[in-house]
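Example record

One chain of 382 residues, shown exactly as stored in the release files.
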Amino acid sequence: LTQLKRPLADFAPPFLAGGAALLAFILLGNAPIPRASAMAAVIALIGLTLRPMGAALSVAGALALAFSPSFWAQTGGAPDTPSVIELLAGAALPLTLIALVALPLRVVIPIIIGCAVAVALIEPPLIAAQSLRITTLLAAWLLFLLTEALILTDIRPDAALLTGRQPYRRDHIPLIALMMLLGILNDPLFALMSPAVLLGIWLTRRALHPVYWFALIGVSLYGAAQIAQTYIDSGWWIVSADGAAALNRHIPFLIADGFREPSRWLGLFDLIMRQFTPLGALLGLIGLVRLARWHPPIGVVTMLAYGAYAIFGLMYFGADAATLLLPLLMIQVFWMTYAAYAFGQWFQKTLRLSESPVVLWFAPALFVLLPLTMLLRIVGVL
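Predicted structure tokens for this chain:
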């Protein structure tokens, strides 16, 4: 742990968010402990991604994802027997953040590859089954790595996001490629992240060997081919979206003109509002606009990833659409939290009382009402 350079206070908020989510998943969601632990690990990683925006905002933003209906839906259902990967994910909750920030790359990569090989050998059906928990865990990890990598090349003295702060680690690029490989092997739909990843790596201005680019593009093309094989049916592909909607049934395939149907756009907006309330949807839009203004690389990359999943959501008529769009919801949370952060910065500058506790905590206190409202909705109070 010699490379650990952050005080405990820097990591406490993600642990707090993960721990609070773990208790909620078990006590309120009746989730089995291994499943709840794997889900809590995702929340902890999202908290770590949001940590540069402040301790309170990172906890509130991560819990907003935890209490969103699509994420919360993973808690219920019939009791299941814990799988090996679920046990590993549960044990990884306190270790994931340490591995991300404390261990050198030469140690982290063998650990990840070893776990992946072990799962493939012990439980190959789990890999073939496109595990949702693996997908969400890798998506959260990838979002953290991408934003951290872009932070290295996007620190503006007059901006506010990360002034005076150094990223947790500087060897993001190999880990990003590894996350893409594991994600696409687990679920080809992970390839929807490829355009954003390729653009994000290019924006880091790192001089990379051509083999790296060929490998990453090759994995992405493989994922795209698997998406076409899994989600495109020649019969349904040419059906009009209006005609498919008139059937009033779920169709687990893509329909080509789904993005042209106004009702599909309204449905996507409704999905976001049902997850995070209309206020959350508005905050997401504001956060994207502010990111595009003050941190263009992060804004463009997250918007590209969001757009890829949004187009898939418009064209996909399956019953599990909301679940498959969880990476989109993670980005929505990132934008929402940044909007709250930007409001707090504006509020402090306007009043010129940046040291006042009331001013410092005003924006976080307002933002925490969002996950609190969502939690009250879960328990049936609202």
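Notes: DSSP finds 19 helices and two strands in the chain.
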